[in-house]
Amino acid sequence: MDGAELELERRSKFLSSLIQKKKAIEQQDQTERLNVKVRASDMPLALQNKAFKCARDQLNYMPGKLDSKRLALALKKEFDSTYGPAWHCIVGTSFGSYVTHSLGGFLYFSIDKVYILLFKTAVEPLNH
Fold this sequence. Notes:
Blueprint lengths: L2 H32 L1 E7 L2 H17 L6 H16 L3 E6 L13 E6 L2 E7 L8
Antiparallel strand pairs: 1-3, 2-4, 3-4
Helix pairs in contact: 1-2, 2-3
Protein backbone atom coordinates (compact mmCIF):
# COMPACT_ATOMS: atom_id res chain seq x y z
CA MET A 1 0.00 0.00 0.00
CA ASP A 2 1.15 3.48 -0.68
CA GLY A 3 0.92 6.39 1.75
CA ALA A 4 -2.53 7.54 0.61
CA GLU A 5 -4.05 4.06 1.06
CA LEU A 6 -2.53 3.72 4.52
CA GLU A 7 -3.90 7.12 5.52
CA LEU A 8 -7.34 6.21 4.18
CA GLU A 9 -7.32 2.94 6.14
CA ARG A 10 -6.19 4.75 9.30
CA ARG A 11 -9.00 7.30 8.98
CA SER A 12 -11.55 4.57 8.28
CA LYS A 13 -10.54 2.69 11.45
CA PHE A 14 -10.69 5.92 13.45
CA LEU A 15 -14.20 6.73 12.19
CA SER A 16 -15.34 3.16 12.91
CA SER A 17 -14.08 3.44 16.48
CA LEU A 18 -15.94 6.76 16.93
CA ILE A 19 -19.16 5.18 15.67
CA GLN A 20 -18.75 2.22 18.07
CA LYS A 21 -18.16 4.60 21.00
CA LYS A 22 -21.25 6.64 20.08
CA LYS A 23 -23.39 3.48 19.90
CA ALA A 24 -22.09 2.33 23.30
CA ILE A 25 -22.93 5.72 24.86
CA GLU A 26 -26.42 5.69 23.31
CA GLN A 27 -27.00 2.15 24.62
CA GLN A 28 -25.92 3.18 28.12
CA ASP A 29 -28.21 6.24 28.02
CA GLN A 30 -31.13 4.04 26.91
CA THR A 31 -30.63 1.52 29.71
CA GLU A 32 -30.27 4.23 32.35
CA ARG A 33 -33.40 6.01 31.13
CA LEU A 34 -35.43 2.80 31.33
CA ASN A 35 -33.82 1.71 34.64
CA VAL A 36 -32.47 -1.48 33.04
CA LYS A 37 -29.48 -3.56 34.08
CA VAL A 38 -28.24 -6.25 31.72
CA ARG A 39 -27.20 -9.30 33.75
CA ALA A 40 -26.15 -11.54 30.83
CA SER A 41 -26.63 -11.32 27.09
CA ASP A 42 -25.94 -13.01 23.79
CA MET A 43 -28.27 -10.79 21.77
CA PRO A 44 -27.77 -7.93 19.28
CA LEU A 45 -28.31 -4.45 20.72
CA ALA A 46 -31.34 -3.74 18.53
CA LEU A 47 -33.17 -6.78 19.96
CA GLN A 48 -32.10 -5.89 23.49
CA ASN A 49 -33.52 -2.39 23.08
CA LYS A 50 -36.77 -3.86 21.75
CA ALA A 51 -37.02 -6.10 24.84
CA PHE A 52 -36.25 -3.20 27.20
CA LYS A 53 -38.86 -0.94 25.60
CA CYS A 54 -41.51 -3.65 25.47
CA ALA A 55 -40.93 -4.56 29.14
CA ARG A 56 -40.97 -0.91 30.24
CA ASP A 57 -44.18 -0.21 28.30
CA GLN A 58 -45.91 -3.24 29.83
CA LEU A 59 -44.78 -2.34 33.35
CA ASN A 60 -45.96 1.25 32.91
CA TYR A 61 -49.45 0.07 31.92
CA MET A 62 -49.83 -2.44 34.76
CA PRO A 63 -52.08 -1.11 37.47
CA GLY A 64 -50.51 -1.68 40.88
CA LYS A 65 -49.07 -5.15 41.41
CA LEU A 66 -46.72 -6.91 38.98
CA ASP A 67 -48.43 -9.46 36.74
CA SER A 68 -45.44 -11.59 35.73
CA LYS A 69 -47.46 -13.92 33.48
CA ARG A 70 -48.87 -10.99 31.54
CA LEU A 71 -45.43 -9.43 31.12
CA ALA A 72 -43.88 -12.75 30.03
CA LEU A 73 -46.69 -13.36 27.53
CA ALA A 74 -46.38 -9.85 26.07
CA LEU A 75 -42.62 -10.21 25.55
CA LYS A 76 -42.97 -13.71 24.08
CA LYS A 77 -45.73 -12.66 21.67
CA GLU A 78 -43.82 -9.56 20.58
CA PHE A 79 -40.63 -11.50 19.87
CA ASP A 80 -42.43 -14.46 18.24
CA SER A 81 -44.32 -12.16 15.88
CA THR A 82 -41.34 -9.93 15.08
CA TYR A 83 -38.42 -12.38 15.03
CA GLY A 84 -40.14 -15.75 14.46
CA PRO A 85 -40.66 -18.68 16.86
CA ALA A 86 -39.74 -20.02 19.41
CA TRP A 87 -39.12 -17.42 22.09
CA HIS A 88 -39.49 -18.17 25.80
CA CYS A 89 -39.80 -15.70 28.63
CA ILE A 90 -39.51 -16.08 32.39
CA VAL A 91 -40.40 -13.14 34.64
CA GLY A 92 -40.20 -12.82 38.40
CA THR A 93 -38.44 -11.42 41.42
CA SER A 94 -36.67 -14.66 42.33
CA PHE A 95 -36.03 -17.68 40.14
CA GLY A 96 -33.25 -19.96 38.98
CA SER A 97 -32.74 -21.25 35.48
CA TYR A 98 -30.44 -23.17 33.22
CA VAL A 99 -31.41 -23.05 29.54
CA THR A 100 -30.09 -23.86 26.10
CA HIS A 101 -30.62 -21.09 23.59
CA SER A 102 -30.03 -20.29 19.95
CA LEU A 103 -26.99 -18.22 19.08
CA GLY A 104 -27.77 -14.51 19.49
CA GLY A 105 -31.03 -15.25 21.29
CA PHE A 106 -30.42 -14.84 25.03
CA LEU A 107 -31.07 -11.87 27.31
CA TYR A 108 -31.26 -11.77 31.10
CA PHE A 109 -31.96 -8.34 32.54
CA SER A 110 -33.63 -6.52 35.38
CA ILE A 111 -35.93 -3.57 35.13
CA ASP A 112 -36.86 -1.90 38.39
CA LYS A 113 -36.94 -4.93 40.74
CA VAL A 114 -38.22 -7.41 38.16
CA TYR A 115 -35.92 -9.97 36.52
CA ILE A 116 -36.58 -11.09 32.96
CA LEU A 117 -35.07 -14.00 31.07
CA LEU A 118 -35.83 -13.99 27.34
CA PHE A 119 -34.37 -16.63 25.06
CA LYS A 120 -34.92 -18.33 21.72
CA THR A 121 -34.69 -22.02 20.91
CA ALA A 122 -34.50 -23.72 17.54
CA VAL A 123 -37.68 -25.23 16.20
CA GLU A 124 -37.34 -28.41 14.17
CA PRO A 125 -40.22 -30.24 12.50
CA LEU A 126 -41.17 -33.63 13.89
CA ASN A 127 -40.46 -36.61 11.66
CA HIS A 128 -43.28 -39.13 11.86
